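Sample log: NAD kinase.
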Amino acid sequence: MQNQHKCHVLLVCKARHERAAELGEEIGAWLKTQGHQADVVEAGQASSFYAADDLDFVVVLGGDGTMLGVARRLVGRNVPVLGINFGRVGFLTDAQPENWREKLEECLQGQERVRSCMALRWFLTRNGRALAEGAAINDVVVSRGSLSRLVCLDIWADGQRMGSLRSDGVILCTPVGSSGYSVSAGGALLYPSMDAIGFTPVCPFLNTISPMVFPGNTDIQLQVLRGSTDCYLTVDGQEGQKLEKGDMLRVSGWSGAVQFLGEGASFFERLRSRGFVLQGSAGSCVGENQ
């Protein structure tokens, strides 16, 4: 994205969101008047535009959920994503609707920083045969079904057996995804630029295994054991599949697989503004006895 370069930009609008769709069309028209190629699609719809060889970057008009769905389509493509926030939290988005033009101009001129983050690859086998595979930006979760009964899993890390776990489930997350389900279940909050995998058991029976953090290149395997109730595989809280006894799930890190445009607020400012860290002015914490 150098100066004077004519860019191909894909605009993805939050599904069934009138204002996001209107702004998407407005941005698309503006890009064309600047000599760039622009295509507009609604999130969740199949489109050949995602696979275009000349795609320079993608602008997502939506919240974190829309960002995750688009980022999974682009994983490993080296196509950066800029988020314009139309959601509630907006942890992954770097621009607001009112300043879209300023952000777009910086992106088109190559002035916006590109942040590379890791993703997760997952592979599911059943009876020794490949059943499904994919990528996750936030997390891969194995959890129980509707009945309040435990999931029983055997767990390996890089071929070494960790042990068996009885719990409500297990969360494997990226650093970007650690601020979601994982931290709510007691997992560590990881700095986004790390290459690491968060491992967080959900309500483990007798606290068998504590939350852990593994290097990003660790190969983690989970096998569903006898005695498990109905359990499910969920990817980024958006894609799901029912698991059967004996199923083997393999998860590993994918370094630099997804790219985001824009630096925006610092990581800690994002945490403060979204309620993860208590607000307070510097030096305002005073001991009770002072």
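Observation: The mean pLDDT is 91.
Observation: The chain has two domains: 8-113+262-273, 119-255.
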